[in-house]
Please model this.
Amino acid sequence: MTMNPGEIKSALEAVIYAADEPASLDQMAAAIGVEKSELRSALEELMASYVSDERGLEIRKVAGGYKFYTKPQHHDAVRRFIKALRPPLRLTMPALETLAVISYKQPVTQPEIQEIRGVNCAGVIQTLLEKRLITTAGRKAVIGRPILYRTSKEFLMRFGLSDLDELPSLKEFEQLARQALGSDEGIAPAEPGDFPEPVAEEAEVGSLNAESPANEIAEEPRARAADGKS
Model:
């Protein structure tokens, strides 16, 4: 059945909204049943219709496809809404610093995390797994085949991110964490399980800076966004 431009745009909107990952032109053309040239024209019109400040969403071209995002001016509102859906979460500073390492180096093994942080992280990793902020990602193909860890969907939701491409620079991560955890009240005292063996005293709250071991993983700042699919 031949579709008119309005029907194509409507179908495009539905497909992009439903996609977990950015939807490519080829994927959308096959799903809707139209030629790529026809689909591209309809997509440009659809994207233009979301430019107005009266719309809270926009369609972005990312990672070879297209995806819905909330607009930057609504970052704070989206974060507050997401935070309200979940009970308060408390993390120790060792757990927060370990989470930062995993976030920026993932997938990463426990020995690699420990090498960066300089402390035994077994207890902290278990805590992050229990809180569903990280998950396993298979095993690394090296001697001993250590388990790989990566952040989870719960992590993205807690921190108001649509995907890992929206991770801020490491310097900004602490501020984002405070917002997600509820300021200093979200930073809990260190637990015995955080340090299975004696280590040097941990840095105080606010230490994810240039002197923190975790800063060794800092990369070039990426554009910060709290965009999430609505």
Summary: The longest strand covers residues 57-62. Residues 183-188, 193-230 have pLDDT under 50 and may be disordered.
